[in-house]
Write the structure tokens for this entry.
Amino acid sequence: MTIFFTILNIAGVNAHILHGCYKNNQALERKAFYKILARQLAEPYLNVRLYNFRLPRELRIGISRVLNKALPQEERGELSNQGQKRKRCGICDRKNDKKTKMSCSKCSRPMCGDCRAYVCKNCI
């Protein structure tokens, strides 16, 4: 772990030196440069997590504050497999007896999680 943070520190120092070499860039203290660098490196990851509706709401609210963005509303679509009876997988052997609510989007053949693709092998 120490080696990782040492390499990270060296990369940060090198980036700060290279940043100062360009004429158009303003001179920043090392601490301020690290804060900007950390924010720029974390921002793409935070944007992805902001739209992950499986995360706790409090965490997504915190991320939206850091990014200065509005909290996106969760879109709830109707689930096509809600209320359906569980059926035996049409691809697996009958001796495995795997039951599922998922099915092929083209032929509606039931498929378990192991065999599942958006379209079954016969429809491809």
